[in-house]
Specification:
By secondary structure, the protein is an alpha+beta fold. The chain is 31% helix and 18% strand. The protein is built from six helices and twelve strands. Strands 3, 5, 6, 7, 10 and 11 form a six-stranded mixed sheet that branches. A two-stranded parallel ribbon has the order 1-12. Helix 3 packs across helix 6. 33% of the residues are buried. About 8% of the residues have low confidence.
């Protein structure tokens, strides 16, 4: 074969190969990209499925790390995908048999709410709630340490922020820390091993700790959630996502308000 045609043939092969790689990469990128939608047809009012759940929707009120009602929270209600709500009903039945009820801080979160968090995190001088939720951190690190992110599992509709209510004491079960505390004290493995349930003690860099009882209380919640199809997050003891969530590549944009049939 003439060298001229040989080089032309090689060049064509390289171009063809590059096109295949680009198409494959583009297809994979498209398949993993999150898609927005305002379709709420696969969602339910959580208390319609779990009537024993107590709602304290923090982002509808002002007691949260921002200090104001969050965009997209139009009513103090909780919404989830039907399959996630059904699984949470099994959790509720489980903990009721142990003397507790579920208390919900947040469930589905519209993208508008996540965007509100992002704007707030970028406004460094706004630290009105620092004392209550992030006293040990400079607000400028919240993005780098991933306390605030542009996308949240909550927008996919199968994630819930949750604790337990003790029916004997008629108070929240003492977990040794508040919901939405930004710090290592919120990690499930703080002062213990969540896989074995063993309390190990210790303290955070700020000198904080939790007791063996508080760690055990966290494990009651964690174990009940894991038994019924949820997975935990390694940075928040209150945060759980359904393992087989139905919309892993979708984020929803409709507001939080009671759904009507």
């Amino acid at each position: 074969m003439n060298k001229k045609y040989l080089w032309l043939f090689i060049a064509l092969l390289l171009v063809f190969g590059a096109i295949l790689l680009i198409n494959r990469f583009g297809k994979e990128k498209q398949e993993t990209a999150l898609s927005p939608t305002d379709d709420s047809s696969q969602f339910v009012n959580l208390t319609d499925v779990v009537p024993d759940a107590i709602l304290e929707i923090r982002y509808f009120g002002t007691y949260n790390f921002v200090g104001t009602r969050i965009d997209g929270y139009e009513e103090p209600t909780a919404l989830m995908t039907r399959i996630a709500a059904d699984s949470l009903k099994a959790v509720s039945d489980d903990v009721i048999a142990q003397g507790y009820r579920l208390k919900i801080y947040d469930a589905y979160r519209p993208q508008k709410g996540v965007d509100h968090f992002v704007r707030w995190a970028a406004d460094i001088p706004d630290t009105i709630m620092k004392t209550y939720f992030y006293p040990d951190l400079d607000k400028s690190v919240l993005f780098d340490q991933e306390y605030i992110m542009a996308k949240s599992g909550h927008t996919r509709g199968s994630t819930v922020d949750i604790t337990l209510f003790d029916m004997t004491t008629e108070k929240e079960l003492d977990m040794g820390g508040t919901f939405d505390w930004f710090g290592v004290e919120s990690h499930p493995d703080f002062c213990g091993n969540p896989d074995t349930g063993e309390y190990t003690g210790g303290s955070s860099p700020a000198g904080r700790s939790i007791t063996a009882e508080q760690f055990a209380n966290r494990m009651i919640l964690r174990n009940a959630m894991l038994r019924h199809g949820f997975k935990a997050l390694d940075s928040e003891w209150w945060h759980f996502t359904l393992k087989n969530e139905p919309f892993p590549d979708t984020y929803f944009t409709f507001p939080v308000r009671k759904l009507t049939k």
